[in-house]
Amino acid sequence: xxxxxAKDPRAAGPPSAAHRACxxxxxxxxxxxxxxxxxxxxxxxxxPEQDAEDAEPDLDPLGTSDPHVIDRDVPxxxxxxxxxxxxxxxxxxxxxxxxxxxxxxxxxxxxxxDGGKRTRSQFTWWxxxxxxxxxxxxxxxxxxxxxxxxxxxxxxxxxxxxxxxARRRGGPALHADVTAQYADRVPPAQGARFGEAVAILAxxxxxxWADDIVADTVLAPGVRSRVRDLWSAMRTEMVAGQYLDLQGxxxxxxxxxxxxxxxxxxxxxYSVERPLALGAALAEADAATTxxxxxxxxxxxxxxxxxxxxxxxxxxxxxxxxxxGSDIRAGKPTYLAAVAQxxxxxxxxxxxAVVLRDSLGRADLSDPELDEVREVLVGTGARDLVxxxxxxxxxxxxxxxxxxxxxxxxxxRLAQLLRAAGGASPExxxxxxxxxxxxxxxxxxxxxxxxxxxxx
Length: 456
Fold this sequence. Notes:
Low-confidence stretches: 1-62, 425-456
Order of helices and strands: HHHHHHEEHHHHHHHHHHHHH
Number of strands: 2
Helix content: 55-70%
Radius of gyration: 22 Å
Oligomer: single chain
Strand content: under 5%
Largest sheet: 2 strands, antiparallel
């Protein structure tokens, strides 16, 4: 394995002025904003610059390219990089125009820093480590992990606008927050539209920032080509999956095959497989190893999406950060809903079919009516089937991982991360374990939605 020639941050000189001027909102080892830091609408005011010799010495052990140190807390290491990258970009945006910096750039930065479990960036890191990558690739891996977190901001902000979701991560969605900030200055008839328009710009800005981070990452020529191709494919897949999701909502599609394809494009590839492939690319893993990791990622990524579908209906809103049943009310073409519809039709269960037809896509669905949908999802066996599918997909993903020739020490941590992402243990999510069922659909159907060799 050849080193990727990533720069050593310890030799990069003193931090930039933008980094030194990082506002209190970005403080904290994992990028969390203090509870008393004020609302997002507060002005972004960079502090005075310090002379390099007067700057506070960097004693944070996560400010190193030593992979063994980073191993101890990957999310915190990524958070540290994100703090620097976001502070630099907010400073530039604020220099262009203070209101743009405050209303758009600062919101993008805070959304990125204040939420999320850094799952995608952890996949990249642990794939790198499992494939034998180390010090030479550490900075590049953290940068790419940061870019994944920023492009996730783009996806979620736009998703909330398209779904008209007012809540995200336990707080107001970005467009709702903008609308509230300008409630006393923008007429109500225009306020919601203004908030949505700003959120679209914020998502666009996040995408531009993510692309810039990838472009600025120092990589060996061969590695750069692989990373560029993976990043380009992932962006297109993400948009395609979102389109299929929207199309399914608009056309009331209940096709199982269509639901699988949308879930794979929107979640399995983007959330797990591509981040793993990026880590393997940084380590210059061979084709066989990369294929095994990507197959594991696709299985687990599908399980991840199926678990998310279940949690939307049956999970605790206090833990999911969004209202229960939002997918049902939005009429999303989930695999769970498609299976329930197919089983109701096959059993000629008229009542179940009517409940699904009359409930899916109804924004004003009441809680008692949502309970009826839950009863149908359980009564048709759809919930049990999806639980079984999750277990089978995670197990198959682990078999792919076991078959990979991984020279690095990161295999156990990668396996642990994959199992957690797949949600193989429903009890951890507060859901009872249903009796196992088998619908006769081979897991291979879930995996055959895109060309296997497309990303190699």
